[in-house]
Specification:
By secondary structure, this protein is mainly beta. It has one helix and ten strands; from the N terminus they run αββββββββββ. The protein has one domain: PLAT/LH2 domain (Lipoxygenase-1, Sandwich), CATH 2.60.60. The strands form two sheets. Strands 1, 4, 7, 8 and 9 form a five-stranded antiparallel β-sheet that branches. The radius of gyration is 19 Å and the shape is elongated.
């Protein structure tokens, strides 16, 4: 009987630890609509929680064929995490998505943030389409982000 109780307690403790698993990965999926992303447009992403930048993305302007994203295409990019994020860190956050491109470039995109936790659970948030219009410098749109599995 003691073994059963001890085993049950250990199992419950392990479940409690796993349910609070840290963030393993943050991925942005970017669905392009209406205006294709020009190949020479730099995509920028930043996840800010509690005033601290916790993950960033800078990509996608080095290859004239792969980096021109056609209307209707979806592209996935992993964000670089500044540090290990605890399970509870992704509330009250802001996702900033931007584009730096030659003046007049337009890109209509719907971003989805996917967070994968160390216990295998995932949380997703898809945002409405926005159109980024470059004026020759970085243009950014901000989205409120609360994710819990």
């Amino acid at each position: 009987m003691k073994r059963v109780v001890v085993s049950t307690v250990l199992f419950l403790l392990a479940q409690a630890v796993l349910s609070q698993a840290p963030v393993q990965n943050i991925t942005l999926s970017l669905l392009t609509q209406k205006n294709a992303k020009p190949w020479n447009a730099q995509v920028r992403g930043k996840l800010v929680c509690g005033g601290q930048t916790v993950a960033t993305l800078k990509c996608c302007s080095g290859d004239q064929k792969r980096d021109q994203w056609a209307v209707g295409s979806t592209h996935y990019r992993d964000m670089q995490m500044a540090q290990t994020l605890p399970h509870v860190a992704l509330t009250g956050c802001t996702l900033e998505l931007g584009m730096s491109a030659p003046s007049g470039s337009r890109w209509t995109v719907s971003p989805t943030a996917t967070v994968v936790y160390g216990n295998g659970k995932q949380a997703h948030r898809t945002f409405d389409f926005v159109t980024l219009v470059s004026n020759g410098s970085l243009v950014v749109k901000s989205f409120g982000l609360d994710l819990t599995p």
